[in-house]
Design brief:
alpha/beta; 30% helix; 19% strand
């Protein structure tokens, strides 16, 4: 039962079609890093199955207006992540040629970045980290995504994510990775820049 001290608020009807607002937060390099981390404990996580195909995953990413998805395995456990660039770059072409299968038959398990290749940061490091520290880390390691884990007696829990794209938008500048390109298409884009 709701306490008597609360009253319903007045409601109204829409007068126009509302717009969805995507707030753009401005950042400075001295701002606390944690403020610009996507919190995976309270925010939504987009997940795709390891057996999903390229087209279905691209449609999912497009519908959600995001650039990456977590990939789950047979039992729903986390096995990796996949980005839009992974699906549109050279990786699918190389995998299809190597496996001798049509492009449309490729599955995320073949294109994702598996857990074994992740570079992560411990959440405790964020207690004193600034945005500039995260940018320097991502730049030095040529990372577009930096997962954040909390380590405890039970293992590791994925609690957050830093995205170079979101940091670039907030800072109004590019986090230019050095020429440690991960594929031919990325190398071409970096050399053309």
């Amino acid at each position: 039962m709701i306490a008597r001290s609360f009253l319903p608020l007045p409601l109204g009807s829409l007068t126009t079609t509302p717009r969805l607002v995507r707030p753009l937060r401005q950042a400075r390099v001295d701002d606390p890093a944690r403020a610009f981390m996507s919190d995976l404990l309270t925010g939504p996580c987009l997940t795709a199955d390891h057996l999903d195909g390229i087209d279905a995953t691209l449609a999912l990413l497009h519908a959600a207006r995001v650039q990456m998805a977590w990939v789950s395995g047979i039992d729903g456990e986390l096995v990796g992540y996949v980005t839009r660039d992974d699906l549109l770059g050279e990786r699918p072409l190389q995998a299809a040629m190597a496996d001798g299968v049509p492009h449309q038959d490729l599955r995320l398990e073949r294109l994702m970045t598996p857990l074994s290749q992740w570079q992560v940061i411990d959440a405790r490091q964020l207690d004193s980290a600034r945005v500039g520290d995260i940018v320097a880390t991502m730049h030095a390691q040529s990372l577009r995504y930096l997962p954040v884990v909390r380590r405890n007696g039970d293992g590791e829990v994925l609690v957050g994510l830093f995205s170079a794209r979101l940091l670039e938008q907030a800072l109004g500048t590019t986090i230019a990775p050095d020429l440690h390109a991960r594929n031919v298409a990325e190398l071409g884009r970096q050399l053309a820049a």
